[in-house]
């Protein structure tokens, strides 16, 4: 698929939204990508997973991946779909008191090579947490893959030495709450990010 076809999937499924949003980073924006709108459709999800694997294959050796790792909630379906595409295992992390951990008896094993995936990347903070968690279990993250990259270079909290693949780049204007034009108009705010829903 080309970039316009990928964008059309997001548009058609209602994932590209407009309004006043507080992002999980704390910044505000007038646009938001709600990947859950796409990920509820298995056929669209699998098409995007195929594209994500193709994109990742440009940077890393897909054949060496043993496990795909994603964070709850947004990365669970995607990690499973990417793992299905690659024919490997999928595991996911969960938050407990703000910290990520592997639970339910599933985790990457020592010596495994991992592909860490997520639905959306803003600052890369969650991806970096997962990279660190994978390392705690003796595995190595050899690649990162996100459906939507809406990051800005100056805001990235991600280590730069791991290759990153994405299928959709979205340039969002973001504002600090003090400089947000929607706040100054008293426009109601939506907080769709998973970190704000505790």
How many extended strands? Answer: 9
The CATH class of the domain at 36-172 is identified as: Alpha Beta
Structural class: alpha/beta
- Quote the CATH topology of the domain at 36-172: Rossmann fold
Q: Tell me about the biggest sheet?
A: 6 strands, mixed
Order of helices and strands: HEEHHEHEEEHEEEH
What's the Cα radius of gyration? 16 Å
| Low-pLDDT residue spans | none
Helical fraction: 25-40%
Overall 3D geometry? globular
Side by side, the strands of the main sheet go 5-4-3-6-7-8
Mean pLDDT across the residues is 90
CATH architecture descriptor text of the domain at 36-172 = 3-Layer(aba) Sandwich
Count every helix, treating DSSP H or I runs of 4 or more residues as helices.
Answer: 6
Content of β-strand:
25-35%
Q: What is the straight-line distance between the termini?
A: 36 Å
Structure notes:
There is one protein chain. By secondary structure, the chain is an alpha/beta fold. It has a domain of 137 residues: Rossmann fold (3-Layer(aba) Sandwich), CATH 3.40.50. The protein is 30% helix and 29% strand. The strands form two sheets. A six-stranded mixed beta sheet has the order 5-4-3-6-7-8, sandwiched between helices. α5 links the parallel β6 and β7. α3 crosses α4. It is globular and about 55 Å long. The termini are far apart. InterPro entries: OPRT, Orotate_PRibTrfase_bac, PRTase-like, PRTase_dom. This is Orotate phosphoribosyltransferase. Belongs to the purine/pyrimidine phosphoribosyltransferase family. PyrE subfamily. Pathway: Pyrimidine metabolism; UMP biosynthesis via de novo pathway; UMP from orotate: step 1/2.
């Amino acid at each position: 698929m080309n970039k316009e076809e990928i964008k059309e999937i997001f548009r058609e499924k209602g994932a590209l939204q407009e309004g006043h949003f507080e992002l999980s980073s704390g910044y505000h924006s007038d646009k938001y990508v709600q990947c859950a709108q796409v990920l509820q459709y298995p056929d669209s999800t699998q098409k995007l997973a195929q594209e994500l694997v193709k994109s990742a294959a440009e940077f890393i050796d897909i054949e060496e991946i043993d496990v795909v790792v994603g964070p709850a909630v947004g990365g669970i379906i995607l990690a499973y779909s990417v793992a299905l595409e690659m024919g490997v295992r999928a595991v996911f992390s969960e938050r407990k008191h703000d910290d990520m951990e592997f639970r339910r008896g599933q985790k990457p094993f020592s010596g495994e090579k991992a592909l860490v995936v997520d639905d959306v990347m803003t600052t890369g903070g969650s991806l970096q947490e997962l990279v660190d968690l994978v390392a705690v279990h003796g595995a190595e993250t050899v690649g990162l893959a996100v459906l939507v990259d809406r990051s800005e270079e100056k805001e990235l909290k991600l280590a730069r030495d791991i290759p990153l693949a994405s299928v959709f780049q979205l340039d969002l204007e973001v504002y600090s709450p003090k400089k947000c034009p929607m706040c100054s108009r008293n426009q109601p705010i939506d907080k769709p990010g998973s970190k704000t829903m505790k």
